[in-house]
Design goal:
This protein has 308 residues and is α+β, with helices and mostly antiparallel strands. It has helices at 3-21, 23-38, 43-50, 60-71, 77-87, 97-107, 123-182, 198-206, 211-218, 270-273; strands at residues 57-58, 95-96, 224-235, 247-253, 260-265, 281-292, 297-307.
Amino acid sequence: MSVKQALQARMEQHINEMVTTNPMIGQLNTQFTSWLLGSGLTGAEIIKMIDSNMDAVIQPIELSDALEKTTGTQPPGWVINGLMSVLDMDKDGNVTVADLHTYFEAIGLPSGIEEPQEPEPEEDEFEDLNQELEDEARKQAEELIKQQEAEKQRLLEEQEAKEAAEREAAEQAKREEEAAKTKPEPILLEEDGTPIDHARFIELLEGMKLSSERRNAIAQSPTQSCKIQIKSIEKTLIGKGSLKNGMTVIGKLGGEHDIEVELRLPSEATERVMSFQPNHMIEAEAQICDWNVGRKRAVLGATSFDYL
C-alpha cells in the first residue's frame, strides 16, 4: 500500500467514526460531499477558493466564506465546526491543504493535479536487464546446487568414516576377546608345586593388558604371609565384608622387591591402626583382592596382622 492509499484509508476510517458517533455529522458530511461533487470544480480549484490567504491552513472563517459565496447563504457556526472536525483527520485542531486533498481522494473528487509519470524503459534496455537478472539467478541456482552436492558428499564421507571406525572397534574388541580366550593361564605355582609369592603374582598382573584377564588371575590369588613397610595410612574408600570402612596401609612389600602395595585392614582394627608409625613393619596373612588401575599397584586384603 502506497502512502497516498494509506492516508486515504485513514480519512475514510475517520469519516466513518465521526458518522457512527454523531448522526448529525453524518448528514453534514453527506451534504458537503454532494456540494463538492456537484460543484463541477476540481480539488485544486476548490482549495484555491477556500484557502483565500494561501497559507496552506484552512480557517473556519475561510470555509464559511467559501460556502457563502457558492450557496448565497452563510452557514451556522455549528455547521462549520462540524465540517472542520470531519476534515481534521489527525484531530490536532488544524485543517491543512493536505487534509483537504486526502478528503477529496476519499470521496472520489478529482484533484486536478497531474501526477508526474515515470518514463518507461526502452524495450531493449528492459530486455537486457531481464536477461542479466535471469543469468545471475541461474548462476546462483547452479552455485547453490554445487554447495548442496558438496555437503551431501561430505556427510556421506563422514558416515562412511564413522561406520568404518565402528567396524574397526568391533573387530578390535573381538580380537581382544579371542586373545583372552587363547592366552594361556598365568603360572600360579612354582616348579615344586607351591603357590607363587605375592611379588611374583604382582609381576604377572603388571604384564596383563586386559582387565578381564587380570580379574581372572586375582580370583586365583592365594592367601599368604607377607611383610609390608608402612609409608602412609588412609581411610578405605572401597571394601567388602570386614574390610569395609576400615583403614588402608600404603607401603612397600618386604623382601628384595621394591613394590608398592595397598593393604586393607578390618574395620574393627581402625583405632589400633591409627597409632601405627611410618617405616614400621606389618606382618599379615593377606590375599591380592583388587588392582588399583590409577596408581598401578596391587590391593591386598588382610585376614589377620601383627604390628612389628
